[in-house]
Design brief:
Length: 206
């Protein structure tokens, strides 16, 4: 999986483009907090978590990207951001997840990092409850031209801090014996919760 900013058009954390530095969200042990989305993502044992004012992520297993060895890819990664930050215009969670999955696959396993995606197979498309909200997820298995194939998932749901804000959580796991199992993706999805302190849910204008 190519973390945000490594693939083509990956979503970076806020403040890097010369914009105002936003305050870091309130964090809690064992979770990575996305301030704008008002959520916290569980950090499994042995993973690294990174909180941010706009977006959060958890990763494991750094290695040089097969198509661009100067960049770092990971065996497993889960990243969140408000849908607006990913330039997804959607009114519902289902719409957001369905619109994001192709871009997620390309950013995670396409472009310079893994070469072209030659095909994909849809594994799941279903309604889920996340952080007490009615959400929707789409999961693909993708075949790449360089390096490992991958599992990608786009999960979307209303922010528990602001019902008008759709949150997108992108997951990417390599198809590799060293990579985390898909059950870990399910566990992370189930473990996402409302951020301590509520988060801002102020992600519309990003």
């Amino acid at each position: 999986d190519a973390p945000p900013g490594q693939g083509e058009g990956g979503s970076g954390g806020g403040g890097e483009d010369g914009g105002p530095q936003l305050p870091q969200p309130q964090t809690e042990d064992g979770f990575a907090t996305d301030g704008a989305s008002g959520i916290s993502i569980p950090v499994p044992t042995g993973w690294k978590g990174e909180s941010g004012p706009i977006g959060a992520g958890v990763t494991t297993g750094d290695y040089p990207c097969p198509g661009e060895t100067s960049q770092t890819c990971v065996l497993g990664g889960v990243f969140s951001a408000p849908a607006a930050a990913l330039e997804i215009n959607a009114k519902t969670a289902k719409d957001a997840a369905e619109k994001d999955i192709e871009a997620n696959a390309k950013d995670s396993y396409g472009g310079a990092t893994y070469g072209e995606i030659s095909s994909h197979q849809q594994l799941k498309a279903e309604a889920v409850t996340v952080a007490g909200q009615k959400g929707y997820l789409v999961r693909w298995k993708v075949v790449t031209s360089k390096g490992d194939d991958g599992y990608v998932q786009s999960l979307a749901f209303p922010s528990p801090a602001n019902q008008d804000l759709i949150v997108v959580v992108r997951s990417g796991f390599d198809v590799n014996v060293k990579a985390p199992k898909l059950t870990v993706m399910d566990d992370i999805t189930k473990g996402i919760k409302k951020a301590a302190g509520g988060g801002t849910g102020a992600g519309q204008g990003v």
